[in-house]
Write a structure and sequence with these properties.
single chain; 390 residues; alpha/beta; Rossmann fold; Arc Repressor Mutant, subunit A; five-stranded parallel sheet; 17 helices
Length: 390
Amino acid sequence: MYVPRTAADTLERLAHGYPVIAVTGPRQSGKTTLVRRVFGNKPYVSLETPDQRQFAQEDPRRFLARYPDGAVLDEAQRCPELFSYLQSVVDEDGRSGLFILTGSQQLGLMAGISQSLAGRVALVPLLPFSLAELQAAGRAPETVDQLLTSGLYPPVHDRDLDPAVWYGNYVNTYLERDVRALLNVRDLGTFQRFLGLCAGRTGQLVNASALANQCGITHNTAKAWLSVLEAGYLVHLLKPHYRNFNRRLVKTPKLYFLDAGLAASLLGIQDPHMMAMHPLRGALFETWVVGELLKSRFHRGKPSNLFFWRDRSGNEVDLILELGPELVPIEIKSGETVTRDYFKGLDRWEALSGDARARKWVVYGGSGRQARGQTEVLPWTDLSVLDHLL
């Protein structure tokens, strides 16, 4: 079953203004399905296929000459030799929407783009399904615990696969294909342990030294591995907001997985009943909310405008949306009952910012939308209400 993607409209719009569109994102996020549907009139070539890749590497001019009206080039980072030739072709042709590139290794794809295609490419990161996309297709999980356990990767929902089995296979495939390609890791078991430790720290401040010590690797190796996870769209490092409220602010980023289901699998959470009792359920719910808001930005072709705020005294707001001069604070709570504690961080923010009229939001794990003064309280099922801010 095909689930319509928000990014489809973005791709169609950008194809009228750029000669090359690049769709990147994690493996199995639906990149190939999306571009083949949006650009179904174009020839499709997978550069994962050995003979096609060899042809493109050995005779790039002749390879591109086969597609005078452009093509979809899947896993384009596998053939970096093509990028400089693509530049010549699109500059000479002058048409928009000529070539569509996809790639699941951001480092390789972006290196080719920055060297040869800068200014000619519109980049759209595609993450797994959003809840709103599944809701529109009538395939959304019914409870928070189901959502956090299943995650939002397309194969789990398209084919009704067991998340525990699928995510286990996904991690093994990722390790074998991408980690070996990007890093000289002799012991993949160590990297997999590192991945699990990161899952246990989703929603927390990044501490590369602690990760290194627990894994038996160097601090620099831990930082390099985090960079690879970020480049592969498995994790996102959320930066703190630096507005000065005359207090010392935390300047360390927070680590979030971009899919709560993947993090849950790495933590050994195999079903919704385990999720309901797990001590990291709140962190995984926060992880899901951050991922959803990032999708809303990325799938519209926009960079992140999300930050968090925390001072040295422990005052914190989970998310800050930066809308030009306006800052919109959001608290994230996994509980089903709205309590006074949900508003403490927002109240402190209001006192420090001095703006009692600022819009404030709470996203929680219950049902029913309500208003508390200047604060809107959103149930998890209505998270897409925030899209208009993004």
